[in-house]
Amino acid sequence: MDFNYKTMNRRPPLTQSQDDAVSSPSFQISLMDESSAVTGVQSIRCRAAVCRKPGEPLVIEEIIVAPPRAREVRIRITCTSLCLSDVTFWKLKDPPGIVPRILGHEAIGVVESVGKDVNEVKEGDTVIPIFMADCGECADCLSVKSNLCSKLPFKIAPGMPRCGTSRFTDINGDVIHHFLSVSSFTEYTVVDIANVLKIDPAIPPNRACLLSCGVATGVGAAWKTANVENGSTVAIFGLGSIGLAVAEGARLCGASRIIGIDINPDKFEAAKKFGVTEFVNSRSLGDKHVSQVINEMTDGGADYCFECVGMASLVHEAFACCRKGWGKTIVVGVDKPDATLSFSSYDVLFHGKSIMGSLYGGLKPKSDIPTLLKWYTDKKLELDKFVTHEVGFEDINQAFNLLMEGKCLRCVIWMKK
């Protein structure tokens, strides 16, 4: 991962007069920096849930959010949802884990101010921040073949994508780090314009925010990466929120059989709502491998196999039970950074199978997410069933507990409920 700590800015503590000024309802202060000299916009004091120590409850505290610089926007977050990736990085003690940090990357909000050279959105626009950049200028963004921006490539970095510096400081002037170019566990955040999508404000915020990451990733993996065909057979390893989103995408694409594989048999009833037609409990197979069972069930393997857990061993099982000649194995789950995959050259060459990764479901944010939003308004894409809990910002740690205990799919966190 690309970290550049030397360029990360540090601002001085607030004076007493500045401290008094931020008590107004607007939360604005007169603290200025080089970015405000360009935009004429002041810093903001607001609440944020800060990860101070790995694995410990987030601390809700007041922070300072600097004005947006060139090609950046400052957003007032309406609500944010909790993704398992937030939990993963919340626990990390070594890089790319870093503290203090503001996590969160599934959100929706309203543009509060814009930096220089921002023409795509204006103050008052409703937007979704997305961790995948879509600059609209590089060869990758101009191609239909990729969603991997080469101008602002995906990195798990602690600062803004163009300069590496932070827009967050605590009230003592110490830097607080960013997360996935979004950092939505705060009342205000600053995001690069390449990571912002303007949407219709009439769409319910507690549904639109789901398309910032998880649900869009799963649906996109079936729709864009795999291009699941009508009447095909799909096998999904892992029925968490991502796996169920894959099932939703496969259902939308017309798959006739959607086989869910999980260690928890209690998930099957809920999975039926997402289109899963059959269930395999991988803990009750005796001496058989999961791949052997799937091959037997499908008479030679599934057309499309999705690994949604993030385990190399399951990727191997998925590859072993995708049909020879045309089977595709799609890796969606995020494994440990040092995890490796190993395949027989014979299997790859003589069986004609393919394996591919699917970052953000292969979706191009600014062209594909509007399609998903239309599917939702047309009642084709059923987002409602993904939201199992909703809490206020002050209860954000409760949301972490619910997700870790396996009691929720998506928990929406409202800044003001």
From TrEMBL:
Where are the stretches annotated Disordered? 1-21
Q: Which residues form the Enoyl reductase (ER) domain?
A: 55-413
Under the cellular component aspect of Gene Ontology, which terms does the record hold? Answer: cytosol
Query: Is Protease a UniProt keyword of this protein?
Result: no
Q: Which Pfam families match?
A: ADH_N (PF08240), ADH_zinc_N (PF00107)
BP terms from Gene Ontology: formaldehyde catabolic process
Signal sequence span per UniProt? none
Per the record, the domain of life is: Eukaryota
Q: Sorted alphabetically, which keywords does the UniProt record give?
A: Metal-binding, NAD, Oxidoreductase, Zinc
What is the name of the protein in this document?
Answer: alcohol dehydrogenase
